[in-house]
Amino acid sequence: MSLVEIKNLKVHYPIRSGFWNRITDEVPAVDGISFNIEAGETYGLVGESGSGKSTTGKSVVGLEKVTSGQILYNGHDITRRNNRRKLDYNHDVQMIFQDSLSSLNPRKRIEDIIAEPLRNFEHLSKQDEKLRVLQLLDIVGLDADALYKYPHQFSGGQRQRIGVARAVATNPKLIIADEPVSALDLSVQAQVLNFMKKIQRDFGISYLFISHDLGVVRHMCTNLAIMNRGRLVEIGTCDDIYNHPLHIYTKRLLAAIPRTDVSQRAAHRASRLAVEEIYREQQDKYYDDNGRAYPLVAVSPTHQVALPPDIAQQLAHQESEADV
Ligand SMILES: Nc1ncnc2c1ncn2[C@@H]1O[C@H](COP(=O)(O)OP(=O)(O)O)[C@@H](O)[C@H]1O
Ligand SMILES: [Mg+2]
């Protein structure tokens, strides 16, 4: 059994309009997605802005009302509030946000910010609580004098460390990291990613790591899913996605990874433009009449792709011939 199993999850937001403010339409922010997260792994969820990643993350922590489908945690459906309470789910599952300045209360000192989940769940003595907060600051590489400071007194990278310290305070099993380094400079990104990895090893945490940038996820994830318009267009191992991408949208995201290597810049730009061109020509084929990606079909035991029906059929045909 996987730690988390997401089964045909749908989250549709109502759109209200008119004089009576009636529901006139809906936004299918998440439109039937399924994937599993194994204990101790980092699972990447990647797609452009607006593809439904945050909505998926918020559904997994229980912050978003699910329209249909299931989210199983150790086999229990946590889309039901009762189950979340019984399982101590809010203790086991934490979230880190992209924007640390708005997710950390500006009027609270770091000591109180990091201690908040401890106060909610652990009920330690004042002295033990302070020790634990100091320990957490040390884990994320901040000095003890951070205790009495306020969020605005830190750089973006340091604030992200504070967010991580708060998220790991209760020894969670799963952390949803929603674009945790997207607001940081490249050099600081690497530092934050490295200590997130270290914490994962030390504490055996699983991450659902959300990003719009396939470059960031590359060195973090074991498996990943590519999300587009509320649907998954490709899922697989790191090797499947980076070395054998099949969906046109995945190829486009790969071509968009920023390169730092100056000597290759012209060649990289040319290949990105070529991929854009193919994308423009062929994208209609990869989506149905309603603009939805097709259902995923398995192309290997680990790799699934939302291929157009004719290509999927061709593939199945080749395989059955190979079997004979
Ligand atoms: N509370 C909401 N009400 C209505 N629509 C929303 C709400 N939150 C998000 N959406 C819409 O759902 C879609 C997916 O949003 P989101 O999950 O934030 O995507 P991502 O994190 O990939 O950028 C977008 O079209 C967004 O405008
Ligand atoms: Mg988002």
From TrEMBL:
Protein's recorded name: ABC transporter ATP-binding protein
SMART domains listed in its UniProt record: AAA
One Pfam family, short name: oligo_HPY
Record's GO cellular component terms: plasma membrane
Family assignment from sequence similarity: Belongs to the ABC transporter superfamily.
GO biological process: peptide transport; protein transport; transmembrane transport
Record localization: Cell membrane
Domain of life, per lineage: Bacteria
Principal cellular location given in the protein's record: membrane
Molecular function (Gene Ontology), one example: ATP binding
InterPro entries: AAA+_ATPase, ABC_transp_ATP-bind, ABC_transporter-like_ATP-bd, ABC_transporter-like_CS, Oligopep_ABC_C, P-loop_NTPase
Membrane topology: Peripheral membrane protein
Keyword Nucleotide-binding: yes
Keywords for this protein: ATP-binding, Nucleotide-binding, Peptide transport, Protein transport, Transport
